[in-house]
Automatic annotation (TrEMBL):
UniProt cross-references to Gene3D superfamilies, sorted A to Z: ABC transporter type 1, transmembrane domain
InterPro entries linked to this entry: ABC1_TM_dom, ABC1_TM_sf, Type_1_exporter
Regions crossing the membrane: 20-42, 48-70
Annotated GO MF terms: ABC-type oligopeptide transporter activity; ATP binding
Record-given protein name: ABC transmembrane type-1 domain-containing protein
Length: 117
């Protein structure tokens, strides 16, 4: 699988940053939120009302399904945006490389003229 330079730059700048944030704060947030949620539901069930707690828990699987559905849609759109960003980076790199070639060509002509003198 061959990747263009612009795509590799986009992956390097965006995806590595996302991975770093996920491994740092994401895991900590997952553990904290899971522990807090279980403690809150347990406390609600014992102190307020177990029926009310059950009614609060029932919509959660539906919410998880909706999050998974919309998460996949967002991921698809992010992939399209990432590809466009990679193509843009590739065009910029080609333009910069073209400028360098033109500069060296012009510099070569100047050096030839100086050498002939």
């Amino acid at each position: 699988m061959k990747k263009k330079t612009g795509n590799l730059m986009a992956l390097g700048t965006n995806d590595l940053n996302a991975v770093a944030l996920t491994t740092g704060f994401g895991v900590l947030t997952l553990v904290d939120s899971t522990a807090y949620m279980l403690m809150i539901f347990f406390t609600m069930g014992l102190t307020i009302s177990w029926k009310l707690t059950l009614m609060a828990i029932i919509p959660m699987p539906l919410m998880a399904l909706l999050i998974a559905f919309y998460g996949s849609k967002i991921h698809e759109r992010f992939t399209v945006a990432q590809d466009a960003f990679g193509d843009m980076n590739d065009r910029v790199l080609e333009s910069v490389a073209g400028v360098r070639v033109i500069r060296s060509f012009v510099q070569g002509n100047k050096m030839s003229n100086a050498f002939e003198k």
